[in-house]
Amino acid sequence: MELPELEKLKVPRCLIPEGFGVVTHRQLHHFGDALEDAYGVVSYLRIENAVKKVHCALVMAKSRLAPIHQITVPRLRLCAAVTAVRMDSLLRGKLRMSLEESVFWTDSTTILHYIWSKTKRFQTFVANRLAIIHDGSNPSQWRYVSSKDNPADDASRGLTAKTMLERRRWHEGPKFMWRNQHSWPLVPVYSPTMLDSDSEIVATEKAIIAYIQKINYASEIQCLKLGKPITKKSCLYSLEPFYDADGLLKIKGRLERAPIADAAKHPVIIPRDHHIAELLVRNVYVWESHHCGREFVMAMLRQKYWIPRARPLMKRILRGCVVCRHLKGVLQKQRMADLPVDRVTPQCTPFTYTGVDCFGPYFVKRGRSQEKRYGCLFTCLTMRAIRIEKLHSMDGDSFINALIRFIARRGKPKKIRSDNGSNFVGGNKELRESIKKRNDSNSTRQELLMREIEWEFNPPTASHMGGVWEREIRTVRSILVSLLRNQVLDDERLDTIFAEVENVVNSRPLTVVSDDSRDAPALTPNDLLRPGEGHMSPSDVVIYVGRANTIRRRRVALGIDADITDLTDNIQKMFTLGKDEDVILYVQKDASGNIGKKVPAVGDLKEYAGQTIVFHVNQQGQFHPPT
Q1: Structural domains counted in the chain
Q2: How far is 150 from 33, CA to CA, in rounded Å?
Q3: How confident is the model at residue 29 (pLDDT cuts 50, 70, 90)?
Q4: pTM for this one?
Q5: By the 8 A CB rule, do 236 and 308 touch?
Q6: Cα–Cα distance between 551 and 545 in angstroms, integer?
Q7: Domain range spanning residue 615?
Q8: Nearest CA-CA partner of 610 in 419, 386, 336, 329
């Protein structure tokens, strides 16, 4: 119906009117605005002649619909600002005249602070558009215009044909553009509403407290005004409240003669269930006590206010404090998983299930030079016995030779477990790389396949799954440190040391050593490896260590002076029939101290070593952090 009205619309094609005279100053003015549905930009050419006469003409305008997915109005206004910068670049290339400057107008102080900011970091959407604005304009070119004077408001809101014909602002620009620059609008300075004096702050506080007391304690106030005592059912009965001259409920108390402030003598009563009480507690907890304990917060709060039964409120606020939960949070702990089948399988020969790991290096003398030697530790997962083989290097061939020697002495294992080498934290780089080369060696895998030995690797970050052999390596290292003390041996003496250390570790008790002399001696791995031989004699073992031109004698006392001949038959029966429940039951108890703890489920977000991670589960049903 309004289309015929558009026939009356006329837009002058000439930007400089006839008889205007010589133009001395030219400016481009760009106005932008946006609402929820659309945003638009309109550009004007402002010219002045020699006698300071001003003329403004419409040059170009653009309007765009808002995206389908909803965007906030400040972001749409930022899009309008980007369009204004692009229109300025376009018009400067198309207009055949020299332009002294360009001025950009917006009615959003938010956009102006975005553009004027030099240090603040913004989100990607805002940062990308600010980069375009800064490339095409200078922050000093941007100015503020009120919404009633912004012609781009017509583009974002829309106009009827009749309104467009009657309103000249769209065609000629706002009225201030026709005046001198000193009369142009300035950026309004906004500041929070402040009260004029401390007395107004106090009066406002009293008015708020009186209002919430009137709502929550209406019956108590009515009784006090009439001079009647409050009922015993009231929560304020034990506080002996009174109605002061300011119209506030306060506690009478017994501190009238105390040399303290009047506010502490008669604190104002605040209802616990009101939001004001929560704000007061949060203010004291965060800004005054700086996240201290509940009783300290209570003491500081009662210097001025009294909240009946405030401890549950404080407990809820303190429990929900994000800062305290982050700083005082406890790492998630996991209950120890069930032992694998390899650890609790009876009726199998020693080293049927074996764990293997390497340690070292140790230096040996070879002529006038020194070479590295390593130890390869094989651990029986069932009886905790060990076997140490010496490695001349950490390549695959040296490990195969050690494995063949181990099989020749202890028999072929059914399954071998090891880690992937990533658990050697604290070891030297060479050892970690060599372990990885050993695991990835094709020759090692072919040898295992030929001998029908199953090899299983632990997950990369689950070093706890190799705790059996890791603990044995620690024991071996501690004995070697006490024996060697940084001395350099030769290969023969290092073999002797490894053999003696192996014997010492295999002589440690597997069961509790009884204090009763009538009880049998404790069971050891050597009792199961060499049944009938009994413990080692308590005689000293003499090791000769060559050092320069001298020979040092180190005596190491090994074994226990005990005779276990009586246990020979029992050990044989226990070993052959598989009745080794006595040994198995010693690992029944969870020693981690995490009994009753919630077991994390797959996908749970938990705090692990200072990081928020998602737990994964391996084939044995054990949880471990991802790599």
Answers
A1: 4
A2: 8
A3: very high
A4: 0.44
A5: yes
A6: 6
A7: 595-627
A8: 329
